[in-house]
Design goal:
Blueprint lengths: L5 E5 L2 H13 L7 E5 L14 E7 L1 H6 L15 H6 L2 E11 L4 H8 L20 E3 L2 E3 L1 E4 L1
Parallel strand pairs: 1-2, 3-4
Antiparallel strand pairs: 4-7, 5-6
């Protein structure tokens, strides 16, 4: 099993409060698991580059992808997501992304490999989840890069 300190991050204060409450109800102490309010679209960070062994995205990329806003360079904010999350993962660490909006092939297109100055992830495998078929595509899949 996993050992080490865990940090849960969410942009919604109510979600962070709920997570603290659930952790306390289940006997977890802040020394084991902590929660912080932070928006991945915010460029300020309280931790250094490559601070995490594992980063798990459980729906954040899906939500960011639906955002029509653009960044200072005129790109949709989801286009800068890979660069933001790759900066959080230690060299040799793992990034797992779970999506119900993107197919496996599309996720690999977003996250696999480097483009220009941008760091990319190396495809490692797929975490098997129950799937459903719609429009000739399998949905509810996960990428582990």
């Amino acid at each position: 099993g996993f050992t080490g300190r865990m940090l849960g991050i969410d942009y919604a204060a109510a979600s962070v409060e709920l997570a603290f409450r659930i952790a306390a109800e289940n006997g977890y102490e802040e020394a084991e698991v902590a929660f912080k309010e932070w928006d991945i679209l915010d460029t300020r960070r309280e931790w250094g580059e490559g601070a995490f062994d594992v980063v798990l995205d459980k729906g954040t990329f899906d939500a960011v992808s639906l955002n029509a806003e653009t960044d200072a360079e005129g790109r949709r904010v989801c286009e800068g997501y890979k660069g933001r999350v790759s900066g959080m993962v230690k060299k040799g660490g793992r990034f797992l992304v779970t999506s119900c909006n993107w197919t496996e092939e599309e996720l690999r297109g977003w996250f696999e490999g480097a483009r220009g100055q941008e760091v990319g992830f190396e495809w490692e495998g797929r975490v098997e989840y129950p799937t459903f078929r719609f429009g000739e595509q399998d949905w509810m899949n996960s990428q582990k890069a």
